[in-house]
Amino acid sequence: MSSFPSSTLQPILCAGQWRAATDATRGFRAADPTTAESIGPEFPYSGAADVEAMLDAATQAASVLAACEPARIAAFLDAYAAALDAARDTLVASAHAETALPAAPRLAEVELPRTSDQLRQAARAVRDYSWTQPVIDTRSGLRAHFAPLHKPVLVFGPNNFPFAFNAAAGSDFASAIAARNPVIAAAHPAHPGTSRLLAELAHQAVLACGLPAATLQLFYALDPALGLRLAGDRRLGAIGFTGSRQAGMALKAAADQAGVPIHAEMSSVNPVFLLAGALRERGAGLAQEFFASCTLGSGQFCTSPGLVMVPADAAGDAFVSAAAARFDGAAAMLLLAAGVERHLTAAVAALRSAGARLIAGRAQAEAPGWRYAPSLLEVDAAQFLAQPAALQQEAFGPVALLVRYHDTEQAVAIGHACEGSLTGSLFSAADGSDDADCARVAAALRPRVGRLCNDKWPTGVAVSAAMQHGGPYPSTSHAGFSAVGMPGAIRRFAQWQCHDNVREDRLPSELRDANPAALQRLVDGRWTDRSL
Length: 532
What we know:
- Helices cover 37% and strands 20% of the residues.
- The protein is of the alpha/beta class.
- The strands form six sheets. A seven-stranded mixed sheet has the order 15-17-18-13-12-19-20, sandwiched between helices.
């Protein structure tokens, strides 16, 4: 037992109960980004005993959940979604206090409805078995589908989405539960109170729907060494992570040693190519759109345009001048946490050390709290191509680097040099004058991004089955999956299982000859809803 006074700390959700941390190493409080002052109650850094108890409880719950009727899982997801909607005012007030994100429209009208909608989409995917993707080969006697891991999933939520990517409510959580796996949720220290409120609602719905009490467990923080030890525990079936590249890669190294799959969304510069004809047609409008996209949410979006390629001609000069004026005319913007400000300052310094020139945003804020002035940097294409790695590190905030290219050959070379990103964007002329160049640049860029946008800024992610919110390294640890969109996101936390010559009564329901629910199944190479 630790000597730390656990009675002063908020309880954790462990093994189906809200209880005091048994071996807390220290405590912490949330902070108000507008003042940088601590707010709210103290939360514990859990110790090894609590981690072990959670792993034991989740492992026991995993086999029960794996055998659970899908209808009960779907009922839980729907009930939880309804609970979020009913508690909107309380949840929004908490998240606003801890993150300073606007209560309206951002939290109340956009992010919280998106979160409950994700849960409902997951429920629909559970009811129609679409995530399981049943395949039947009658000639060989083989039948296969995606199935539960029979192990718990560890989820780490980020600082910038207190609802939609929260470890106890967001897409990773919904996906893991839909695949019938228990979740051990790591709340982000930037919004622990909001995470607790979400976990309370989820736990109530778990019990009301008759799921194992340890379907969801929640801790608030771990010391780094213990976090790596947890990530490397073979009792885990998978890990979902959204955060920095440094933290994601450390967790991946630990998970890889244990053979635990990790789906990590880490960093992304989201390259944007502005072609010459597009700037001649609508350069002023694109400058305004760029500023709005780069500064949305103070630039604290994983899809913020951080790398923009601009022609080194008169139209490009006009675009840069118009964009710089907007960046210079903007007030310093609030950041989520001290760590965001620290890392953003270091990223800008590193870009300047690599040769980028600061052309807007020189004056920084003197107001209280964590703030940063919207900033633009610029570098010539030749210099960028000489050291692309140094000039592509993510600056998480209202900051972007402009790369001035001189011809199509350079633009294509830059496309080939781009590191893996969640998104890539191309803006071309409506009259077709850019079409040939667009095709060449797109061919270079397409393998390096998960989502390719045409004449559209990348900020924002639609919750759609057709969405790819993932991409090549280092944007994620696995380019083959999306963190958003049902049923695809669910399959990250599932196992492809084959049944060879298994008797009818021993098969999962969606693989049996009878198909009373008229599920879509791939039978002998053709999709059908018929029974066999």
